[in-house]
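This section describes the prediction task in plain terms. A model, or a person checking by hand, is given the sequence of a single protein chain and must write out its three-dimensional structure as a string of tokens. No templates, partner chains or ligands are provided. The sample shown here is typical of the held-out split.
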Amino acid sequence: MVKKILVKCLFALVLVFLYLPILWMIIFSFTNTPSFSSWGGFSFDAYKELFTGRDSTAIFEALRNTAIIGVSASLISTLLGTMAAIGINSIRSKKAKAVITNINQIPMVNSEIVTAVSLVLLFGILRTFIQLDGEVQMLNVILAHVTFCTPYVILNVLPRLKQSDNKIYEAALDLGCTPTQALWKVVIPDILPGILMGFVMSFTLSIDDFVITQFNIDGFQTLSTLIYLKAHGKKSLPASMRALSSIIFVVILGLMALINRKPKNKTSKQGAYKK
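The expected answer:
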């Protein structure tokens, strides 16, 4: 009994430690005081500044850049990661499969600063051979995000492939499907939950990344770099940044609640109808 109480208290302390700063930020997004230590009265000035202030154009441009990079990197990572997972799963040698799986995990355990510096050097070498104008600088960030998002897609898709029955794919071939048709009509629908989870994780990692983005960005801003720029050297975030961060948290929380919503029990409904 005492052990259960201690475990619950420890869990509650962890939740407080994780979410109390976020709750504090949301509360202080409804006041116009520049500090987090004193309450200056309830107001929507921070949200007004977010949408109509002098930095609103830069904020929404950064939001647009973040969305473009996140969606593009997630789509490319999902495509590459799904293809790689199917290829890894088809390898018959257990040793070769284990080696490739371990290599895939290196970008996930590697320090972000190492990845960021290596990508800066790579793009610098490419520029010496390929002359690119300033309009494609966003491509550098997209490719950089693809490098660390793809392993997470593979990590989500591989377990679904291991759970699927390969005999269904072989049956589709026996019934006249080509390998491509069997892939799209049998394999992809079976592993679709893993693909979607890989896409969501890639998008979340992309919009959340700062270190790799900061090293490879040039001539534009994303939300993470803009928030760092506005908060760098200051004791507190500007009011508009507090409002923006609060909106992002509430939107993500709503999406997670929607995704994890339990479907209604159809069998119970059917039983109720029969009665």
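For orientation: The first helix runs from residue 2 to 27.
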